[in-house]
Design brief:
About 25% of the residues lie in helices and about 30% in strands. It has five helices and eleven strands; from the N terminus they run H-H-E-H-H-E-E-E-E-E-H-E-E-E-E-E. The N and C termini lie far apart (about 60 Å). The strands form three sheets. A five-stranded mixed sheet has the order 1-3-11-5-9. Strands 2-4-10-6 form a four-stranded mixed sheet, covered by helices on one side. Strand 7 and strand 8 form a beta hairpin.
Length: about 200
């Protein structure tokens, strides 16, 4: 009887499938299917229709702010961004936002309905939410559910499967309008990304 060994390609494929399944399980708890609100947000972020918005530098809003400390202008900047409709809004469930960053550090206003807020994005970058006194809020949960990673994917330019959602962070924030600071980092891919706020 002739004995055959599995090909190297078959072994690599089996190993890749096993590692993918294992990786999905280590993110959190072993969920089997994507849960809400992540499922709805995945649909929004995967859609081709977005509200396009550009972040700005303070000096673009008011040239007198070119060399001013952010702490001195935070409240006025929030008011100006809101008046100019340069804001993201929690609970807007019909479309996600496509954000274009104007610089390595730039700003938008963000309207929060109060209570639990989950911030989703398709890119990696550093971000902060400040009130008008430049107080910031602490993330309560930044664990990406394994089911969200496995259940919300797209093909990149090399036809490789990639997760759509790269940031998923939960906060508790009182109702109000705040300042959203966006900062590129070493993991930021490009200057345009999609955002949804649940």
């Amino acid at each position: 009887m002739k004995h055959t060994t599995p090909s190297l390609k078959a072994l690599v494929t089996i190993l890749a499938v096993m590692m993918t399944l294992y990786a999905c399980d280590i993110y959190s708890g072993g969920e089997k299917s994507i849960a809400e609100p992540d499922k709805s947000v995945c649909t929004l972020l995967s859609d081709s229709l977005f509200d396009v918005i550009s972040s700005v530098e303070p000096a673009t809003v008011n040239s007198a702010w070119a060399d001013t400390s952010l702490a001195d202008i935070a409240g006025a900047l929030i008011d100006s961004l809101t008046a100019d409709s340069l804001f993201l809004e929690q609970g807007k469930n019909d479309r996600a936002y496509k954000v274009k960053m104007a610089a390595d550090t730039s700003y938008l206003a963000i309207k929060i309905t109060g209570g639990k807020m989950i911030y989703f994005s398709t890119n990696q970058y550093t971000w902060h939410i400040y009130d008008d006194k430049l107080n910031t809020f602490t993330v309560e949960n930044d664990v990406m559910p394994g089911a969200t990673v496995a259940g919300c994917t797209e093909l990149d330019s090399d036809e490789k499967v990639q997760p759509v959602i790269r940031i998923r962070e939960e906060y508790t924030i009182p109702e109000g309008v705040y300042l959203l600071e966006l900062i590129t980092n070493d993991q930021t891919a490009g200057t345009t990304f999609r955002v949804a706020i649940h």
